[in-house]
Amino acid sequence: MNRFGLITHTAPIVHLITLIVLAALLMAGLAGTEFALSRYLANAIGQLAAFAVLAISLDLIWGYLGILSLGHGLFFALGGYLMAMYLLKHSFEITGTVPDFLQFMGWKEFPFYWDGFEFFPYALAAAVVMTTLISGLFGYVSFRSRVGGVYFAIITQALVYVAMLLMFRNDTGFGGNNGMTGFTVLFGWPMGTSGMITALAVASLLVLAGVLAGCNGLVKSRFGALMLATRDDETRLRTMGYETLRLKLIVWCLSALIAMLAGMLYVPQVGIINPRVLSPELSLEIAVWVAIGGRGHLVGAVIGALLVNAVKFWLSFAAPEIWPFILSGLIVLVVLVFPNGLMDLAKFKLVRPMGPKRLASDMGEARP
Amino acid sequence: MSLTALLVDGLTVRFGSFRALDDLSLAIDYGEVRAIIGPNGAGKTTLLDVISGITRPKQGRVLFDGAIDLTGLSEAAIARAGLRRKFQKPSVFEGLSVRQHIAIGADVGFRARLDAPALEDRIGEVLETVGLVDHSNRLAGELSHGQKQWLEIGMVLASDPKVLMLDEPVAGLTDEETERTAALVRALKRPDRAIVVVEHDMDFVERIADRVTVLHEGRTLFEGSMAHVRADAAVVEVYLGR
Ligand SMILES: Nc1ncnc2c1ncn2[C@@H]1O[C@H](COP(=O)(O)OP(=O)(O)O)[C@@H](O)[C@H]1O
Ligand SMILES: [Mg+2]
């Protein structure tokens, strides 16, 4: 409340976007000075930002539309692989580095379908077109025949598994089980320098802020209200004259594109992509990030992704073997104790003393 | 506009070998309030499901306005033709506010078609009609059972439907709420609108209905005024008498 007695209420999402943009500006400003972050930390921040974008993509479809995908790793990998193709082709043109997998296979040159990938806009366009086609076709067939709920989740999981088996083959010209690595140049600049690491992290943070702002605008619009209506009772909405098939298809493709974007940001920062990003476990993990943060809340998805991955990063040094147990424990906790993830915790503290009526009116971003 | 709003013609719906509707025919005119009564499992909800496009019949057709066969259309196309239906189990969007419901009901499409003031007027009118003005910003999930029933009625009448179907609108309501619902249904009656009400509460039916159709095992057992229904031996036997 300000002194006029008006409630000046800024949604948490606005705070978060501001925070992310400030962090990006700060990182960019401090680059090269003695206060600059270590390369390790800057890189970790950039990767976390890419994961947060991935979490938002799933939250959009699961939290706001009620469609659980356990195969979002597919679109993440698609973006990642096409980015890697650009990086390898571009690096080859500038430095003459021949990718490992070509040498393994004894191939003299890139297969014809690599043509054009040295040109970034082409790689980007290819990623957008392929993601839209694959998600559009799959979504159309599934939603058209009204496959939903757990059946849809299982089919998406099968899809990502099939894609993994395909990419493990060595004769496809996409790197096989070793994947693609050895990227040396990005947009003409050498990779692995502090400057490049910072630039990638800053870019990832800015993309994260943009995706957050865009998705927030979407879910608060009239279209967003229709998304929630579809989630809550699709038949009810259809019998009021709305073709929910179109709505679901649009959001599903958009979600796939955001996941693809996350993959494109992730690969240059981690320096490698291989078929293991297509493993069913990774796709399951994305759902865990969102569930822990609280699905149906964009802020929650970001916090969930950051929290779970920060713990995972740290454990991968301290005690890598206990990670699966921690992950399982988190799932049990979320399912049994906090079905809305951390959002439940937040409500316990902030809202309980004011009575139950505040509870819903404080949910903030779920409603305009 | 034809005189007959809905012409149900030889409708058969099967679930496995069970016939939920069995060669059912009936006609509902514009301007009337028609009650459909009958024991549980008689096929009342199934009939509304066929009319609103949720269930496809095995045989028969449903003509709307004398010309459009609804049995081949999607739920959304049927709704856009001017038919709306309230479900037996109150069906509202838990995560949306009361006014968002009315807005969705009043203005069909992904982008708003009505201009903002016209939509506001319409929302105000409908909220007034269903008595939810004081709750316009509450989430549907917080409403009482009776308020949810009214919200759903408000949502389906916001578009000014030509055919309004209400499946058990007073189930679980208090006497006072039932009274108000009866007044509401009578107020919605118009010469260019047909209202179909499925209900078990006979006093309520008596207050609202111009004509009554009694369904039994997927077929029409009787059709006429409520007074005649009460006097019919067969109806008393299978339904009222128990
Ligand atoms: N989807 C379905 N699958 C199988 N049986 C159904 C289905 N829907 C309704 N039925 C059966 O059809 C009969 C008529 O149901 P319904 O139309 O809901 O009755 P009413 O609304 O008159 O009580 C009931 O015996 C019910 O069990
Ligand atoms: Mg029924």
From TrEMBL, chain A:
InterPro entries: ABC_transp_permease, ABC_transptr_urea_perm_UrtC, LivM-like. Coiled coil: none annotated. The keyword Transmembrane helix applies. It is a multi-pass membrane protein. Pfam families: BPD_transp_2. It comes from Ancylobacter vacuolatus. Keywords: Cell membrane, Membrane, Transmembrane, Transmembrane helix. The chain crosses the membrane at residues 12-31, 37-58, 65-88, 119-143, 150-168, 196-219, 245-266, 286-310, 322-342. It is found in: Cell membrane. PANTHER family: HIGH-AFFINITY BRANCHED-CHAIN AMINO ACID TRANSPORT SYSTEM PERMEASE, SLR1201 PROTEIN. The keyword Transmembrane applies. The lineage of its organism: Bacteria, Pseudomonadati, Pseudomonadota, Alphaproteobacteria, Hyphomicrobiales. Its main location: membrane. This is Urea transport system permease protein.
Automatic annotation (TrEMBL), chain B:
PROSITE patterns: ABC_TRANSPORTER_2 (PS50893). It comes from Ancylobacter vacuolatus. Residues 6-242 form the ABC transporter domain. One of its GO terms (molecular function) is ATP binding. Pfam families: ABC_tran (PF00005). The lineage of its organism: Bacteria, Pseudomonadati, Pseudomonadota, Alphaproteobacteria, Hyphomicrobiales. InterPro entries: AAA+_ATPase, ABC_AA/LPS_Transport, ABC_transporter-like_ATP-bd, ABC_transptr_urea_ATP-bd_UrtD, P-loop_NTPase. This is Urea transport system ATP-binding protein. Keywords: ATP-binding, Nucleotide-binding, Transport.
